Amino acid sequence: MAEDLIIDHNATRENRYEQLIPQLSSLVSGESSWIANLGNIMAGIKESMGFLWVGVYLVENSELVLGPFQGPVACTRIAKGKGVCGTSWLEDRILIIPDVEVFPGHIACSSASKSEIVLPIKDENGEIIGILDVDSIYPNDFSAIDQKYLSQISELIESCLVNANK
Model-level pTM? Predict the structure, then answer.
């Protein structure tokens, strides 16, 4: 069965998120495979928002390991506290990086990336189980609007991961 997202690409970024999130929720609601669900969520974000790279890193032991993503090839493993994703994991906080070139220890998986937002994904006990990572080719491309809506998508990802482990 073919799935299509209906997004007005001429709408504001906030309106595109508002159109996207209910469709993503509906898309993953009947599927039990976390891999399929995360793959579709990443594709939905990239297709709707036009970002360079969208993906999830999942916590495995003492490092983040690349999960489903859309965009250019990516770094496979990231240590806790390293780069933007590892720092978000270590500090347990959302990071908006307006210029990745000035972030201390930035890991340049793609030279095309100019700005980034990363959001911790937590389980029902508040433990970080992954990081949602979104990169843009534009400097200073992320704002509180992205944080608000990507936080909602992080909760959807959490639900997919937690429900897969039950």
Answer: 0.94
The Cα–Cα gap between 43 and 137 comes to 17
Task: Tell me the per-residue pLDDT of 10-40, one tens digit each, with 9 for 90 and over.
Answer: 999 999 999 999 999 999 998 999 999 999 9
Tens digit of each residue's pLDDT (9 = 90 or more) over 109-123: 767 889 999 999 999
The answer to whether the CB of 57 falls within 8 A of the CB of 65 is yes
CA atoms of 25 and 151, how far apart (whole Å): 14
List the domains of the chain with CATH numbers: 13-164 (3.30.450.40)
CA distance 114 to 28: 31
